[in-house]
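>> received
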Amino acid sequence: MKRIFLTLIAAVVFFQAPGLNARSQDLRQWTTASGARVLFLSAPEIPMIDVAIDVDAGSRWDPSARAGLAAMVGAMLPRGIRVSGSMPAMSETQISEALAELAVQRGGSVTLDRASITLRTLSDADVRERAARLLSRVMFEPAFDQAILQREKSRTVAGLRESMTQPQSIATRALWRALYPVHPYGQQAAPETVDAIVVDDLVRFHQQHWQATRMRVTIVGALTEVQARAFAEQLLSAAPISPATAAAPQMHVPSRQHPAALNLRPAAVRQAIAHPASQSHLWLGLPGIARDDPDFFALTVGNYILGGGGFVSRLTEEIREKRGLSYSVFSAFQPLAQPGPFMMSLQTQKAKAPEALEVMEKTLKRFLQEGPTEKELKAAKQNLIGGFALRLDTNRKLLDNLAQINFYDMPLDYLDTWTLKVSRVTREDIRRAMGRVITAEQMSVIVVAGPEGFTP
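>> returned
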């Protein structure tokens, strides 16, 4: 009954978490004894704690012949814990049952820059301590069982093979290869690279990258700062202790591809890929901005006007409203630790792909030359500022925002000043920033399932 009761409480809180303010003066930041940096916001309104642990162990660290290794390590962590001192081994089933008994919700993901583990638990002292110590063992004492690895590899390879038949996946994979031909962002897992992964690869990657000094811990919940400090130490209680772990944490980049040596503007690729799909998939892009770009807000507002604002964007006006070429079209920046891509995309009837591509490119060029109108700028600011509160209306959304601040070394007043900085963006700011980052002639173009004989 206790387990059911706790689960019900967790479910109710998950759906009814109230909105919160994340003022910078309420944030607390420190470094743990093992070298991880913590960002904490006390949220006493509900008896819950949300945690994100972000590790500089994303797929950009994959060896090229083992692309998919970072994701496989992340998938294998909760599949078993090894014996450690007086602590017994735990199977995958035992871990799941222990989390369920505590009514803990655990999540995880691996992206280009980071591997992430999330935890949602009740703030009860006994529950949170047991949850933290279990999660710590999951992170630092994985078993990496050979049989389970083979199962996970088979599952991953099957998914990859299926995705590589889908036109959208084919297009995006081709675009990333075109934009980052010699950079880790461009390498992608394939059946052969995943199949090549062995247990020793997992052990080596985990030892090199899953270190406390490479971790950023973000906590939002019903704790005092004293309690949060103790909780953070419990989350890292299984971390190996060595002299090196006392070093201040910092962002890392793959040494084989140091930013100073990167060619982040490769020659544009224009590629047509045959496919029997009934719809053409068009993707355009080029390397764009890192997360700390000084023109971030001008680019955010500019992209909203161009193609990030849904049905009120200029691309939608030209593509959908005026010509009926596609139901939806978008543009987006994806800021990363190193310059992530700027992309534009739509789907359309095969016969209309050439016209749709021409309109997209002409719309982009005109926007770069002229910038937005005053009417467009005013509407974009109103929509962005008016919708800002929705980015912070639950603990989980707050956690996601604060975790980004923590991982990417962003200013602690980022959320405080967001609306002010958006309000100060001018037409000239947008024209200058977009022109600095985007050159229409350097945009790579990928068309999957275009009309026969069409060359973009």
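>> The chain is about 40% helix and 15% strand.
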